[in-house]
Design goal:
The complex is a heterodimer of chains A (463) and B (494). With 463 residues, chain A is α/β, with parallel strands linked by helices. Chain A folds into three domains: 72 residues, no CATH class; 111 residues, Aspartate Aminotransferase, domain 1, CATH 3.90.1150.10; 260 residues, Type I PLP-dependent aspartate aminotransferase-like (Major domain) (Aspartate Aminotransferase, domain 2). Chain A is 35% helix and 14% strand. Chain A has 13 helices and 15 strands. The longest helix of chain A has 38 residues. Chain A is globular. By secondary structure, chain B is α/β, with parallel strands linked by helices. Chain B has three domains: 56 residues, no CATH class; 255 residues, 3-Layer(aba) Sandwich (Aspartate Aminotransferase, domain 2); 133 residues, Aspartate Aminotransferase, domain 1 (Alpha-Beta Complex). Chain B contains 16 helices and 13 strands. Classes of the chains: A alpha/beta (463), B alpha/beta (494). Chains A and B meet through helix 1, helix 2, helix 3, helix 4 and helix 5 of A and helix 3, helix 4, helix 5, helix 6 and helix 7 of B.
Chain lengths: 463, 494
C-alpha cells in the first residue's frame, strides 16, 4: 500500500474528527482531572516493548465526500440483480422489499440498541422479537421459536447438536438433497467430533430415496434432517418421512431454504417435525451478497430447555402491566458457561425485526398470494423452458419456485446468456458431480413474464 | 411513565385488512392443488396479522420509542463498546452494487465485493499484527468457534488435538461455551489479585494436553494483561497456542498489536470496534486473524488475489471447512471497511486514545463515590464493586428483622430514570456487584460530567429516600419485570 506524504498536523488534532468530540481544551482538562500529564501516560500499563512505535500501514483518511465516491466506484465493479435478468436462487432469493422495512429499521432506536439486557428500556426490541417468535410458530406450526440464529446453515448445525442433547446418539441421517453449503457446515460443526452424518440419496424424481432411507435408518440414528423444498426445488413427502422417523424414535428436523414456501406447504409441526429450521432471508432481509441472513429456529414445547439461543417471554411488571423479558437464560453461555446449550450470544436481531415487519405487511393473505405468484410463474417458466428442444426438466416431482433443467453444454450456454445480461441459474455439477449439465433455475415475483420469455428466447439461441 | 399502550401486532389485526400490494400474476394462475398433492399443502393459513401499511409503520415506530439506543441515550455498557454508528456506513452498505448482488453470481461479476473483503482482511491483519484473516464468522462467539477449530486442526496436524483449553475466571461466558462445543475440557485459571492473569497461576496448569489459553486483552475488566508475552512464551514452550478474544480492541488499535505480543489467533467484533450497528442483538461479525502457522486451516472459501483480480478458493485440504453458508455478514464488512477508510491510521489511533481517555475520566470522577474493583490502570472501561453500598440501606427489613441492603441493581435502575442506560452489572462474576462502565470515545465531556453528577445525585437519594432507587425505574413504559413468572409460566408467543 502506498503511503502519500502527509502534512504535519498539530499533535492531537485529527484531520477528520467528526466522530471524536474532544477539543484540545477538554483533553487538557480531562487529563488534569485524571491526574496524568499526557494521553500517552494512560497507556503506561502496556510495556513499552509491546507498543507499536510506528503508524499503521493502512490508507490515509478520507473525507465523507471522497469516501462516498471511492466506495461508489468500488460497488460499481459488481454486477447486480438490477443490471441483469436473474434466475439465481439456491438458498438466496430475490424478493421485493417493501419500502417500509428499511424506513423502520433505519430508526436509530432499533439499529443502535443492543441486546435487551435492561428490559425496562428495551421493550421495543423485546416486543418485536416476541411478535417475530409468534410468526415463526405460525409459519412452522411449532410451539416455540427462538429469537434467531446467524443463518439456516448454522441453525441446522445447532439443530443436530440439540438432537444429540436429547437422544445422546451421535449419528444423523441428512438428505443429500439438503443445501450443499449447509451440509458442509454440518461437517465442520459435527463430523470431526465423532458425530456420524450419513447422507440419504435422492431418487430419479428428485425426492428422498425411500429405500435408501429405510436401509440406513436404525436404532443408532438420533436425528433425521430433510430439506423441503430441497436444493433442487422439489417438495418432499415430509409426513411419510416423519412417521418413519418418529417410529424410529429419532429427532425429526425439517429445513426450508425458501421460507415463502411455508405459506402454502404443510407445516413442520403438522408433519411431525421436532425441530424446524428456515432461512429467513426471503422475508425482507435482502440478498446482501449472502449475508446478513436470518436463521429461523422452532421446536416443540417439551424441548425448550434443550433449545439454543435467546428467547423472549411475556410477563408482568410490579404493577401488573404486560411486559417482555429475555427468559430461560439458564440455558445460555453467560450463566452456564461451558455447560450452555450453545455458545451463541449476538444473533441476528435486526434481521428478525425485518422479517417481523415484512410478515406484518404481507399478512395472512398477502404471503399466500405472493407464494401463488411465485408458484404460477415458476410453473410457467418450467413448462416454457422445457418446451425448448434439447432442454428437459431433470426431475418430475412437484416444485415451488425452483426447478432443475438439463441443458446440453450447460456451462457454455450459461456463459453465452451472461453476455446478454442473463444469469440463467446455478450449475449443479460443482455441488453434485453426478449432475452434469444440470442447472438450478429460480423464478420469483421479481421475474416478469417478459423476463421469462426473454430468457426462453435467449436460451433457445444459445443452445 | 407509559405515555401510550401499544398492543401486539396481532391485537391490532382486523380480518380483511391489507398492508401489501402485489403485481399481477401475468402468467396463467396455477392453484397449488393443481400441481402439488393435497397432502403436501397447509390445511389452514398461518395466522399472520392483517394490518395496513400505516398500522405497521405506527406500531413499529411506537415500539422503537420504547427502546434506549446509542442514538437516544448514553449507553455505557462495559465490554460492549456502544459507540456512535456513522451514517455514511449505512448509506454505503445500501449501495445497489453491494446490497443487490447475489452470492451465486460468478466471480467476474463480484470483483468489487471481493476486493473490499480482501482489503478489509489486510487492514484487520495490519491493525492486529497478524498474518491472515477470515471474515466468515457471523459474530464474536462464532469467531471463537472458528479460531478454536483452527487451533484444534493445528494440533491434530501435529498428531494430537489435545484435550484442554485454559480460560481465566474473568472471561466472557462465550469463551468456555465455545471451547466446549469444540470438544475441549475447560480449565479455569484464577486471575491474580490485580485482576490479571499471572504466570505463577498459569504454569502449574500447563501440560501437553493444553491446546491454548483464551485471553481477553485488554481484559473484560478493562486491564491490560501485561504478562502476556511471558504467558505466550510459557504456552509456546509446551506447544500450546495463545488465543486472544479481541472484544476490546477499541482500547488497543493503533497503539499496540496482539500479534506483537505472541498471540496466535484472535477474533474481532466488528460490531464493537468498527461501528457496525448492534441492531438490538445482531447481526454482528467476528472476523478471525491468525499467524502464519494457522493459515492452512482457514475456513473456505479463501479470497485469493491474482494480479488485479480476485477469486474464491475452496480447494484447501487442511481447511476446517465452511463455518456458514456463503461468505459471512457481508453488509457488516462494508460498514467496517468504510469506517476504517474514514479514520485512516491517525484516526484509528486517536479513536483508541480518546476511548481510554473517556474511561479514565469517568473513573476519576466516580472513584471517590463508588469502590474501584482494581487499583491498576484502566484502559477502555472502569470497573467498580458494590463495597461502597455497605454504607447504604433500603430502610427496609426482612421478616426476621435483618436490614435489606441496597444493591447495584437499584443504582442501575435509577440511572434509567435520568435517561442513562445502566452500565453492565453483575458481570464479570469475580467482581462483587460489579458495575462495568465503558463510555467509548464518541461521548463528549458534557455527557460524561452529567453521568457522574447523576451517579452522585442517586447516591444522595439513596441516603434520604432509598425507595426512589429500590422502586426504580419510574419513567419507563414498564416497571421492574417479573422474571421468575416468565420462566414458571412460559408464554413465548402471542
Amino acid at each position: 500500500m502506498l503511503k502519500p506524504i502527509r502534512l504535519a498536523l498539530p499533535r492531537g488534532i485529527n484531520r477528520f474528527m467528526r466522530y471524536l468530540p474532544h477539543t484540545e481544551n477538554e483533553i487538557t482538562e480531562m487529563l488534569a482531572t485524571i491526574g496524568v500529564k499526557s494521553v500517552e501516560e494512560l497507556f503506561r500499563s502496556i510495556p513499552p516493548s509491546l507498543k507499536l512505535n510506528r503508524e499503521l500501514n493502512i490508507p490515509e483518511a478520507l473525507s465523507e465526500m471522497e469516501l462516498r465516491k471511492a466506495l461508489l466506484q468500488l460497488s460499481k465493479k459488481n454486477k447486480t440483480i438490477r443490471d441483469t435478468i436473474t434466475f439465481l436462487g439456491g438458498g438466496a432469493y430475490h424478493h421485493y422489499l417493501p419500502s417500509a422495512i428499511s424506513q423502520l429499521i433505519n430508526r436509530g432506536e432499533f439499529f443502535t440498541a443492543y441486546t435487551p439486557y435492561q428490559p425496562e428500556v428495551s421493550q421495543g426490541t423485546l416486543q418485536s422479537l416476541f411478535e417475530y417468535q409468534t410468526m415463526v410458530c405460525e409459519l412452522t406450526g411449532m410451539d416455540v421459536a427462538n429469537a434467531s440464529h446467524y443463518d439456516a446453515s448454522t441453525a441446522c448445525a445447532e439443530a443436530l447438536l440439540m438432537a444429540h442433547r436429547i437422544t445422546k446418539k451421535k449419528k444423523a441421517l441428512v438428505a443429500r438433497s439438503l443445501h450443499p453449503q449447509y451440509r458442509k457446515v454440518l461437517k465442520t460443526y459435527l463430523v470431526r467430533f465423532g458425530y456420524e452424518i450419513e447422507e440419504i440419496k435422492y431418487n430419479k424424481d428428485g425426492t428422498l430415496d425411500w429405500e435408501d432411507f429405510n436401509a440406513k435408518l436404525n436404532s443408532d440414528v438420533g436425528a433425521v434432517m430433510v430439506g423441503s423444498p430441497n436444493f433442487f426445488g422439489v417438495i418432499e413427502d415430509l409426513e411419510k418421512i416423519g412417521v418413519k422417523t418418529k417410529a424410529n424414535h429419532s429427532i425429526y428436523i425439517t429445513v426450508a431454504s425458501e421460507p415463502l414456501s411455508s405459506a402454502l406447504l404443510a407445516t413442520p409441526g403438522g408433519v411431525g417435525a421436532d425441530i424446524a429450521v428456515m432461512e429467513g432471508q426471503s422475508f425482507g432481509v435482502g440478498l446482501n451478497f449472502g449475508g446478513p441472513f436470518l436463521g429461523m429456529f422452532a421446536t416443540r414445547a417439551q424441548y425448550i430447555r434443550s433449545m439454543p439461543g435467546r428467547v423472549v417471554g411475556e410477563t408482568v411488571d410490579e404493577e401488573g402491566a404486560r411486559g417482555y423479558v429475555l427468559t430461560f437464560s439458564t440455558r445460555e453461555q453467560h450463566i452456564r458457561r461451558e455447560n450452555a446449550t450453545s455458545n451463541i450470544c449476538t444473533n441476528q436481531g435486526l434481521c428478525a425485526l425485518m422479517a417481523c415487519i415484512y410478515l406484518s405487511l404481507m399478512g395472512k393473505e398477502g404471503l399466500v398470494e405472493l407464494a401463488q405468484i411465485n408458484l404460477s410463474r415458476a410453473t410457467y417458466a418450467k413448462e416454457k423452458l422445457a418446451s425448448i428442444k434439447r432442454v428437459k426438466p431433470l426431475f418430475n416431482a412437484p416444485i415451488f419456485n425452483e426447478f432443475v433443467l438439463h441443458i446440453p453444454n450447460a456451462s457454455s450456454v450459461l456463459e453465452k446468456l451472461k453476455t446478454k445480461n442473463i444469469f440463467g441459474g446455478i450449475l449443479l455439477e460443482r455441488y453434485y458431480e453426478e449432475m452434469k449439465d444440470a442447472v438450478l433455475v429460480c423464478v420469483t415475483e421479481m421475474n416478469s413474464k417478459k423476463e421469462i420469455d426473454t430468457f426462453c428466447e435467449e436460451l433457445g439461441r444459445a443452445l | 411513565m407509559k405515555t401510550f399502550n401499544e398492543q401486539t401486532i396481532f391485537e391490532i389485526s382486523s380480518s380483511g385488512r391489507k398492508g401489501y400490494s402485489l403485481p399481477k400474476t401475468e402468467v396463467p394462475q396455477v392453484n397449488p392443488d393443481e400441481v402439488i398433492p393435497k397432502a403436501f399443502l397447509r390445511k389452514t393459513k398461518a395466522k399472520l396479522p392483517e394490518v395496513s401499511e400505516f398500522d405497521v409503520v405506527r406500531h413499529f415506530t411506537r415500539l422503537s420509542q420504547w427502546n434506549f439506543s446509542i442514538d437516544t441515550a448514553f449507553y455505557p455498557l462495559g465490554s460492549c463498546t456502544m459507540k456512535y454508528n456513522p451514517r455514511i456506513n449505512e448509506e454505503v452498505a445500501r449501495f445497489p452494487g453491494f446490497a443487490l448482488s447475489h452470492p451465486y453470481q460468478d466471480e467476474k461479476t463480484m470483483q468489487g465485493s471481493l476486493q473490499l473483503m480482501h482489503e478489509l482482511q489486510n487492514y484487520l491483519c495490519e491493525i492486529s499484527g497478524m498474518d491472515f484473516c477470515t471474515l466468515q464468522p457471523a459474530a464474536g462467539a462464532h469467531g471463537e468457534f472458528t479460531g478454536l477449530l483452527m487451533i484444534r486442526s493445528y494440533h491434530e496436524s501435529r498428531g494430537n488435538p489435545r484435550t484442554k483449553v485454559i480460560i481465566p475466571d474473568s472471561a466472557h461466558g462465550t469463551n468456555p461455551a465455545s471451547a466446549a462445543i469444540c470438544g475441549y475440557q475447560v480449565v479455569t485459571v484464577k486471575t491474580g489479585k490485580d485482576g490479571i492473569v499471572v504466570p505463577e497461576e498459569l504454569a502449574p496448569l500447563l501440560d501437553n494436553e493444553v491446546a491454548c489459553l483464551m485471553l481477553t486483552n485488554p481484559s473484560t475488566i478493562g486491564l491490560f494483561e501485561k504478562n502476556i508475552q511471558k504467558i505466550a512464551d510459557l504456552l509456546h514452550s509446551k506447544g500450546a497456542l495463545l488465543y486472544c478474544d479481541g472484544a476490546n480492541m477499541n482500547a488497543l488499535m493503533g497503539v499496540a498489536r496482539p500479534g506483537d505480543m505472541g498471540v496466535d489467533c484472535m477474533h474481532y467484533n466488528l460490531h464493537k470496534t468498527f461501528t457496525t450497528p448492534h441492531g438490538g442483538g445482531g447481526p454482528g461479525a467476528g472476523p478471525v486473524v491468525v499467524k502464519k502457522i494457522l493459515e492452512p486451516f482457514l475456513p473456505v472459501p479463501v479470497i485469493v488475489k491474482e494480479g488485479d483480480t480476485y477469486r474464491l478458493e475452496t480447494n484447501c485440504p487442511q481447511s476446517i471447512g465452511r463455518v456458514r453458508a456463503f461468505f459471512g455478514n457481508f453488509g457488516m464488512f462494508v460498514r467496517a471497511y468504510t469506517y476504517i477508510r474514514e479514520l485512516g491510521p491517525d484516526g484509528i489511533r486517536k479513536t483508541c486514545e480518546m476511548a481510554v481517555l473517556n474511561a479514565n475520566y469517568l473513573r476519576a470522577l466516580l472513584k471517590d463515590h463508588l469502590t474501584l474493583a482494581y487499583e491498576a490502570d484502566s484502559l477502555h472501561e472502569a470497573i467498580f464493586t458494590d463495597k461502597f453500598l455497605k454504607d447504604y440501606s433500603t430502610g427496609k427489613v426482612t421478616k426476621d428483622g435483618r436490614p435489606i441492603p441496597l444493591k447495584t441493581l437499584d443504582i442501575a435502575k435509577r440511572l434509567i430514570d435520568y435517561g442513562f442506560h445502566p452500565p453492565t452489572v453483575y458481570f464479570p462474576l469475580i467482581v462483587s456487584g460489579s458495575l462495568m462502565i465503558e463510555p467509548t470515545e464518541t461521548e463528549n465531556k458534557q455527557t460524561l460530567d452529567a453521568f457522574a453528577e447523576t451517579v452522585k445525585k442517586i447516591l444522595a437519594e439513596a441516603k434520604t429516600t432509598p425507595t426512589l432507587l429500590t422502586e426504580a425505574p419510574h419513567t419507563t413504559p414498564v416497571r421492574r419485570l417479573d422474571e421468575v413468572k416468565a420462566v414458571r409460566e412460559p408464554k413465548l408467543r402471542a
